[in-house]
Design goal:
Arc Repressor Mutant, subunit A, 432 residues, Udp-n-acetylmuramoylalanyl-d-glutamate--2,6- Diaminopimelate Ligase, Chain: A, domain 1, 34% helix
Amino acid sequence: MTKHDRIIEYIKNLKVGSKISVRKLAKELSVSEGTAYRAIKDAQLEGLITTVPRIGTIRIEKENKKGIEELTFQEVVNIVEGSVLGGHTGLEKPLKKFLIGAMEVEDMARYIEPCDLLIVGNRKEAQILALNCKAAVLVTGGFYPDNEVIELANKVERPIITSSYDTFTVAMLINRAISSKLKQKEVILAKDVMVKNPYFLDINSKVGDWRRLLRATRHSKFPVVNDDGEVVGIATTNDVIGYPDDVSIKDVMTKKPICVSPDTPIAYAVHLMVWEGIELIPVVENKKLVGVITRQDTMKALKSLRMQPQIGETIDELVLNSFTIEKFGEGVVLKGLASSAMLNQYGVTSFGSLMTAMANAGLEAFRIVKRLETVPDTFTVYFSKPVQLGEEIVIKAEIMEIGRKAGKVEINVENESGMIAKGVMSVKVLIR
């Protein structure tokens, strides 16, 4: 085990709330202060410790982030209007999956895993089996388990719940709730991707502190907080370059930085970064620093979102569902039929739906051909004639130019009789 690993293991074994300092760690473990400092920062990244203004660095309970699609057993209780008879200490645990106990008990054992939920009627053997497998139990039909089952639930810390609904109804209610949770993934918020317990400087730091943090973390942008933990600035390479180590960070930092709340949609944060030309945004709650997001964080989140199978149908999805896409040279071609989702009140394709299809074709051209994530800047479109329901149309988007921060694409829409619409869209590049 290396010195670094030994320090991390030491920190993991500390009691929650214990104070940690570089000097104390170095002395107790007989390592250099530089080694101790680097290990402390890595432990902070792992969520093992945090630095609290006026208190110092302390050991904290590592948070296991619950996926947005997961339900807790407490939420299940509310969904099925149930009562908890035992195992109350396990109510906040996340539900892994639910099973319906309609088979023989010996067959159930192959499918039940820890943190599952067994939905079953008045079958004591099945209830005991599930609890011994560290799974929760939902008893349907208004039945109540006997005291032996309740005592076992308390022992293994898994809830035993009773509901007056039948098995089919509770399964439907839980499934609907999970589906609703999945749909929430369509809107990724800052709190879903932000780096918690980020590195920061306090208002009394010097430029030398910024340089030491740069060497230790390889990061170059740090929020600056006051004694109350409120964000008052950002210190970047451009801010400190040319200044000696003893200059106060508050004299060179960028004051009043743009911040977002934990509930800010990531898409909005991306646009802020593009328009303001910034790479990092502090996330604040009641003005206090709770995390940071970077362009890289936001782009990873948006790319991950497009890969999720449960994404609901947005307006863009409804319009584009009837099109196929192919790459050619410096662009892409979308081919398909004008669908009912694209119609206006007069029974012909609306200009808005055509513009949606054209804009998406332009963005796909940059994504597929240049592997760039972009957002529209300006869009000029000329229409020549309407499109009927079921009519085949071709949308051709060809990149005209691309620079480091911006690009331009020409988009044409045609049918078998000729041109329908023509447009030019300029875009801003999010990140290469």
